[in-house]
Amino acid sequence: MASQEVKLIGFWISPFVHRVEWALKLKGVEYEYIEEDIFNKSPLLLELNPVHKKVPVMVHRGKVILESFVILEYIEETWKESPLLPQDPYERAMARFWAKFAEEELLEDAWIALCSHGSQKERAVKSAIDALEKIEGEIKGKSFFGGEAIGSSSDNTKKLCNTVPMASQEVKLIGFWVSPFVRRVEWALKLKGVEYEYIEDDIFNKSPLLLELNPVHKRVPVMVHGGKVIVESFVILEYIEETWKESPLLPRDPYERAMARFWAKFAEEEVLDNAWIALCSRGSQKEKAVKSTIDALEKIEGELKGKSFFGGEAIGYLDLALGWISYWLPVWDEISSLQLLDSLKFPSITTWQNNFLENPVIKENLPPKEKMVVYFHNRSKELAPVMASSRHA
Ligand SMILES: N[C@@H](CCC(=O)N[C@@H](CS)C(=O)NCC(=O)O)C(=O)O
After folding, report:
1. 154 CB under 6 A from ligand 1?
2. Is the same domain home to 95 and 135?
3. The pTM is what?
4. Which protein residue has the closest C-alpha to ligand 1 atom 17?
5. Quick one: what percent of the chain has pLDDT higher than 70?
6. Which residues of the chain are modeled with pLDDT < 50?
7. Collapsing DSSP states into helix, strand and coil, what is residue 257?
8. Are both 178 and 219 inside the same structural domain?
9. What is the DSSP letter of 5?
10. What residue's CA is closest to ligand 1, atom 2?
11. How many angstroms separate the alpha carbon of residue 312 from the centre of ligand 1?
């Protein structure tokens, strides 16, 4: 491959950039490396990554791919030699789960531990060590997470918990009625025509089953397929897509797939997190969160314009990932007079919202609105003091 086909914009010390470089080198992909100064960003970086303005940025044949994990998946799908992910969908799910876990629980806490002082440092050190203990359990007895060779994780990885005895194709989903993370999994299963047994849990009084099946996060959704336990809704969606090939949710083209994954992550981190803070906080914290949510929605509006669905003509992965915007966000708007989803400001999102909610699979699988209003009203009141104190933490 001609080196000009792949360009990587990086910063010498970034671990996110290095993981992309390692993947390219392991696969023997030639690339041109362009060093960036993240403290004095170049016009090129700002043009290629206007959303986050961060490295790494990979450009392949003029197409821009962002976010190191999204880039890793793109590299894996584009250059098949020396695979980094295992073949088996469950092992792939485990690799994605632990990668996400280490990023969210270890890297973030270790960084806070490095940069903070006093009780905040102590807390972060403790959390980082807790996370390392879980990772130690995962790698025990292996040369690499990828087994005998470097990969994203293991071919022989331990299950999150003991295997649950059940028929080989049986699917169970443990959920909570109002969780948008659970609904996106249900929608995916229904769109693909996969039968499953739904088990309602109480996240305020967790069942022994939930604690046993998801000892790491203790959260729903938890999906069990033929006794194998998969957690984290985006990891579950990828597993569903790889296991049941009918009615594909992700596009075929690796670049389009990368875009779907990028926007799903963006909406989760920038829209969902901020909208939740906007609902549950007060005063200037609320104002700031409202503004950030609207800024993020503007980017989503730009991404959607002119399309019926994010997935084109049919509901796909990104529609499911963002599905909560169509139904949960208006409820939050109503409870807290947030005025986030203004139809004049966001005409494309509004049209998409109507298209999405008209689909029978979606329409028939939504929590009752009145019950949601009461639930979120109470939750926002309960969480307001917690949000206020976390601001000063
Ligand atoms: N990132 C997770 C989020 C799951 C999540 O936060 N689930 C909530 C219900 S909406 C939960 O189980 N909360 C219980 C807890 O955090 O203790 C996913 O996508 O699956």
Report:
1. no
2. yes
3. 0.93
4. 219
5. 94
6. 1, 3, 153-159, 161-162, 393
7. helix
8. yes
9. G
10. 232
11. 29
